[in-house]
């Protein structure tokens, strides 16, 4: 794999770098066992030389890892350089100590334009208290981008003198600077919030909210005020939910999701009927992100609201945060006339979290009418609730829809020991409306059983117990879907020794088999059977495996040779040639040559031989 | 008496209403956003712009254009050819000539009518453009990898929280049914107590970025090289750097496979462990794999490839009682078929983003957090970056999530961030 260590000398690495953009990993680490101090000195020397910009740039990057205060004087020379400034700052931003701060401060006094902006940004990243005076001065810089950068950096540093300056600028005349000052204030307040100084933070947020600044800043400050304002913050939250500005509604919802405590949940529960239905729906979604508790009862109550928007939102979120007490309401909706609401309710029932939901669904089975039984059985199936004793009586229900729902539930929930429930029904059933449902249920249940071989053996025994050809065919279909050694052997026996209908089914299933272990079985069947139709089907199945699956060259060639020997018709012989040509190798070349001896395909085999030889020559560079 | 609507028919109804998956959090086109005859009222449409729409971006854009409640109105790209191509594509879709074009993302973000943006620039720009978008009050779908380093990952999450914006990372596997199901099995204890999660990011090596010899710089209207570089350190124009797959992907530490593919498969491992904080320990690579450990003791193991032929960069989750492995082929292999009982998990191969985009649009409307939200993406990317740093330094590193720093490792800590070129900042 590629995780190799490649410790190349830095010079040779650089040549590679210039040529290919990317430098191998080890070459940037401690090459040739040099100490960090030696490496640092090496890169400092590059910076102080007349090396090309490219080399100096990479030296800066190296010093970001290996540099110390000793490297700062050389790095400082490039802080105001239009090309190398950001390379130098890559190192200066991370080298600890006052020397790097000083270098950036000097740069902040000497650079211009975007280079100056970048330098100020780096000062902000380092939170250099000593730079506050310079930054405050830069708030008045003629370049608005510089003044804005200074404002944001002051906010990050959080020094009182700088914050006072920012608060003053909130009321200034320069719109762009006001925006940046608000950003700085919000970053400062954010740090106060993180430090637990909510009252101070709230004050700053409110100052921003009261300023004539862009809406995005008002939005951010509103979130902060809600989170830090205590009762005043909650009052603001309620107020903003009634706002006609969707951005303010959205930030209120966002802040609600973050607010600790449960009092606010009760407050908002009362608001659900007061606000616009669209907002009420959004509030329900937000409630589903809160710790649950009383929330679910609030959402259940929302189901009774007239607004379909609110109802649907309530159903959706109940699926995430509801519990067993919601089931009656959801089941009623699931049986209702509103198609979408009913479908959503079914989804919610399936998704409701908790074992108690399972128990409640099962217990309701005995006290429900037919329509509700269908809903319950479907839910039991989708939720995978193991309750065969409760489900099995419904397999014999007089109502066919209930029977089918019970079959679905059984298919998803019965254990291996209980599979006989479905097998018995398959063996007993007359071809009627339930027949396909029983087959499907048995297939689904069998495929998911953990012990595939034991299940297949049970089904094989069931085949022996019945005289019904239809049942045998159905069981073969299930075995075909399952796969595995026992299923394969049972299909082989049916193909070789069954009556015509079983041979038909077994060869059809073998022909579609999806693993290579069917190859010898298919060859055996194709050479043993007398009936041409089934022989050909088996041989084509064998060829499909030969063509589609991974084999070594020699093994695939041997399979092609087998197929040629088994084939009695030119059609299949030509299919063999196609496989040979598709996988050119010395082995398939030999088989193609042998095929030239078969009169019916001699000419085609010569072409195949030629094509394979050509491909092999090309591969060999001839 | 039975209701005339069977359960099956109701589910069909939901499907026709564009429900795409029953797994994990619901995705839907709420009927309430659709007006009569299925048309979306203008007031309910999400107005979207695109920033940096190349190959993957064009695919993503196609997913947005399929949404009935999305109106795509503008594209920004530093390359004229792409601006024109995307305008043509969008105009053709809508049968008009109204898709506006911009060279500078700031101009597009200044538009007050745009609700959300698709960010599909090179990875160099992702976090910076996302920050610009959030500062401009836009929600955003941002292609992965979404950050260049640990510092950007933390700042991205902070920015989205502070601004209340909806952020969806382009880690679309979280909305691909079989991947979602596999993660759900792990997360909900169906595999027993989780022991190991495996990510298989092909190409596990860390690299550094650099530059190529100077070529004549095109006119800004053709290719705006300064804007192409954006927050990356300056270097001269060279056409080979345009569309460079790895150009400044990981800042100073170009991510290689751990970032490129890890942002998918490590991300899924993170989801499988409940989007908890990233691992706290990353061993030096050994015998073709790297072992990282979560605080819970669960191991995150990075390997070049999976055991089973399930497509590129699969994931595997092992618990005390079962396991599951899934890859991009859409296939999933389980330790026991019983694990899937009762579930109909669609097999969708490739890198489909339609469901992921749909979830994003839903979340723009409901303000729910999408599955690939900024916090989740941040944690997954921190895991990738920390693993890359261990690869690069070729030694074990320990990460302190409380202080967001490596423990006693100055070199590793210096690799957590990288200065941006002015005027860009996060």
Automatic annotation (TrEMBL), chain B:
SUPFAM superfamilies from the UniProt entry: Glyceraldehyde-3-phosphate dehydrogenase-like, C-terminal domain (SSF55347), NAD(P)-binding Rossmann-fold domains (SSF51735)
Gene3D superfamilies: Dihydrodipicolinate Reductase, domain 2 (3.30.360.10), NAD(P)-binding Rossmann-like Domain (3.40.50.720)
Pfam families xrefs: GFO_IDH_MocA, GFO_IDH_MocA_C2
GO terms assigned for molecular function: nucleotide binding
Entry superkingdom: Bacteria
Domain Gfo/Idh/MocA-like oxidoreductase N-terminal: from-to ranges: 49-170
Residue span(s) of domain Gfo/Idh/MocA-like oxidoreductase bacterial type C-terminal: 220-426
Protein name per UniProt: Gfo/Idh/MocA family oxidoreductase
Species this protein is from: Aeoliella straminimaris
